[in-house]
Amino acid sequence: MMADSGSRYGLPARRWQVLLDEAAGLLVELARRGQTISYSQLSYQLKSARIHHFSYAMVGLLDDLSVRDAQSGRPLLATLVVRQSSGRPGPGYFRKTAAQHGTPAQQERFWQEQLAAVCAYWQGAAGKRVGSNSN
Hints:
The protein has six helices and four strands. It is mainly alpha-helical. The chain has one domain (12-130). The strands form two sheets. A two-stranded antiparallel ribbon has the order 1-2. Helix 1 (13-33) packs across helix 5. It is globular.
């Protein structure tokens, strides 16, 4: 996670926080509609800072969102971010979240379960109470 001061991927800490909030808001809306988004589309839709979809900053953004969600007991919004070519998350997602779930087929099943869980959460009563402010 990020300290309260300093910078993150070349952005001042406060601007990084704004970027996290913006990304979370976008992903919450997608979860409510039961949709995924490609890394490149997410990068394009973020307005508070420009980050390339193949950058370490994108990885850090999704990691920080995942930490925030896990600490709040919510399904991971990062589950919604997929490769445009395959409609599945990139290998980093599987290394970090699904690796402990065995074979590639089991990892795929884990991702599908997590995708259903994040959409159900934000479509349900719990997600409506939290609102678009997901921190």
